[in-house]
Amino acid sequence: MSNDILSTTSSIDLQFDKEHLWHPYTSMANALPAFGVIAADGVELELQNGTKLIDGTSSWWACVHGYSHPKIVAAMQQQTAQLSHVMFGGITHRPAVELARMLIEMTSPRLTKVFLADSGSIAVEVAMKMALQYWQGRAKPNKQKILTVKNGYHGDTFAAMSVCDPEGGMHTMFGELVTKQLFAPAPQSRFDDNFNPEELNEIATLFEDNHQQIAALLLEPIMQGAGGMRFYHPEYLAALRKLCDKYDVLLILDEIATGFGRTGKLFAYEHSNIEADILCLGKALTGGYISLAATMCSDEVAQGVSDSPAGVFMHGPTFMANPLACSAAIASLELIRENRWQEQVSSIEAQLKRELADAIDYPNVKDVRVLGAVGVLEMSATLNTAELQQQFVDLGVWIRPFSNLIYIMPPYCVTPSQLSKLTHAMKTVARQVSLPNDASPFISHG
């Protein structure tokens, strides 16, 4: 095999890619165009033709520190030379221990146990298995259902699919293989508006009628990501915590997209001043440099799992607590602990609010939403992803719309001028966009 395959200077065979490589949510019969990227630095992606694009997506919300950050790169290089991987069964290593210590210090006091897995979807699977095994250990094996809310998204594996939106998600195409869960209406009170307590009525009834079968309530705190980039009121989440306590149900929070500063708090649950029983983390955990996820739980949950008939937690991925990934996460969290993200995210939010506000007057724009380092233009109909991707590339930015949303979640290190270029591109495309109804609504989570 030629060394040219590994060369950074050889061209990317886009035709071969189109004919042989699956990309997320694409058809091999009618593939979306893929742009060849050869390098990335800071907030910019470099295409093989030399074009540089300002990345407005943080590579699906993960690269919060930007690309090629010297601290993360150095940590990974050093770890690769020392210990790139070792099985976690019967063996431990410093990166895993130090990462767990950091996560316990950064999250809420209740969360003291850490399970390190491969990806966000697996973190959700692990959380759901923890909840079911916990109730087995507490002699309530009938508590096997998961309660969640509509418009949620938690990943593409089968258990995770079962708690994604039942209408816009993937339930229908996989039939009986997907477990039937309990769904409440999506939260409606906007983050920055008054809270309507009446929207709790239906979910409260679901708790009351089904709590003997409900193992856990699982949802994304404050921001529903791939289910529509919707920001809901902190009082809604606080009320759900109380319902979980009242009806003896565990609370699982999926912070894979929102964790590590994206919504303006280190973790989105802090907006509601609550704690989870089980917490899922991923994406920005490693700064987006390598796949890793964490599922954290309380002492009580861990003890219940240990008291279950199995006596152990029944999960153990081959690449669990991979040292290389753990070292990247340590470097990423050290950057987070420097607290520059707070000023960065606050500045991004203020600029997004200023520069996107007038888009609400565009004929095809249904809503404009901003929270933390997230800016959203909700259009009045589904978008043509392929067409808009090319338009954004022509404008010098990388923005990938989905469903009826044009949104950005840029790296925190984006400069004001780079951010202005992103918002200008969003508004330019939104102003002139045509609105077919043939695009897939899905976007990757893990």
Automatic annotation (TrEMBL):
Subunit structure: Homodimer.
Originating organism: Shewanella halifaxensis (strain HAW-EB4)
Keywords: Aminotransferase, Biotin biosynthesis, Cytoplasm, Pyridoxal phosphate, S-adenosyl-L-methionine, Transferase
Sites marked Participates in the substrate recognition with KAPA and in a stacking interaction with the adenine ring of SAM: Y25
UniProt key word Cytoplasm: yes
Subcellular location: Cytoplasm
N6-(pyridoxal phosphate)lysine modifications at: K283
Main location: cytoplasm
UniProt-recorded Gene Ontology molecular function terms: adenosylmethionine-8-amino-7-oxononanoate transaminase activity; pyridoxal phosphate binding
Known catalytic reactions: (8S)-8-amino-7-oxononanoate + S-adenosyl-L-methionine = S-adenosyl-4-methylsulfanyl-2-oxobutanoate + (7R,8S)-7,8-diammoniononanoate
Binding, substrate: W60, Y153, K283, G316, R400
Residues that, per the record, bind pyridoxal 5'-phosphate: G120, S121, D254, P317, T318
Gene name per UniProt: bioA
Protein name: Adenosylmethionine-8-amino-7-oxononanoate aminotransferase
Gene Ontology terms describing biological process: biotin biosynthetic process
